Amino acid sequence: MITLILFGPPGSGKGTQAALLVEKYGLLHISTGDLFRYEMGNQTPLGLEAKRYMEQGQLVPDSVTIGMLRNKVEANRQVSGYIFDGFPRTLPQSQALDELLRELDTEVSGLVMLEVPDEEITRRILLRGQSSGRPDDLDEAVIRKRIDVYNAETAQVFDYYHQKGKSHKVHGVGSVEEIFQRLCTTIDSFQNG
Ligand code: AMP
């Protein structure tokens, strides 16, 4: 089983690349941002709770996020692997993921971080906002907040898996195809040990 964490700041191309990786490696793509947006669209209590944080570029509380993630994984146990996108974003989420995977008798295969400079990220998110329909992609103050939250709370997830020898960096600027090839080279290298 391959369990991949696709990591990087907002707007680094995780969603785009995850879609390609899913096809190539036959993994289940789990994006906590997409799950929250789905719940929001259906105006469920979970969606309404998440909305308050997402609108401001803040993280949804760990207890809510971890519970939702756990349900999704447990409901899809017959897959050949997972690609986590936008999760984990905090140390408690990382520990919860490790614990959950241990229960399933597996573990994180590797974390791959897409490295993209801040100015490029802001440019990409604003561009995406023109068609994504995501309010958090349209407001520059919210985008700035999301980048700040990434640097303050999320970046340390890289170090957490680095200490386990599982973190990898990939240059995230270039064409979609170029970046995809770089990702595949990295994934194939850690897959083969
Ligand atoms: P994303 O689609 O990954 O950019 O996530 C959009 C928003 O959803 C984030 O700015 C957070 O408010 C929320 N969110 C998504 N994933 C998580 C997570 N793992 N932990 C906390 N909040 C999250």
Describe the protein's architecture and organization:
It is a single chain. This protein has 193 residues and is α/β, with parallel strands linked by helices. Helices cover 58% and strands 13% of the residues. It has nine helices and five strands, in the order E-H-E-H-H-H-E-H-E-H-H-H-E-H. The protein has helices spanning 14-25, 32-41, 45-54, 62-74, 91-103, 118-132, 140-154, 156-162, 176-191, and strands at residues 2-7, 28-31, 81-85, 110-115, 167-171. A five-stranded parallel sheet has the order 2-3-1-4-5, with helices on both faces. The chain is globular. The two termini are 13 Å apart. The chain binds adenosine monophosphate. Adenosine monophosphate binds next to helix 2 and helix 3.
Quantity of strands, as a count:
5
Shape: globular
Distance between the termini: 13 Å
Listing every helix as H and every strand as E from the N terminus to the C terminus, the arrangement reads: EHEHHHEHEHHHEH
Continuous helix count: 9
Radius of gyration, CA atoms, in whole angstroms = 16 Å
| Largest sheet geometry | 5 strands, parallel
Strand content: 5-15%
Unreliable stretches covering 5 or more consecutive residues: none
Task: Briefly note the structural class of the backbone.
Answer: alpha/beta
Instruction: Assign a percent range to the helix content.
Output: 55-70%
What is bound: which ligands?
adenosine monophosphate
Strand order of the largest sheet: 2-3-1-4-5
Mean pLDDT: 96
Q: What oligomerization state is this entry in?
A: single chain
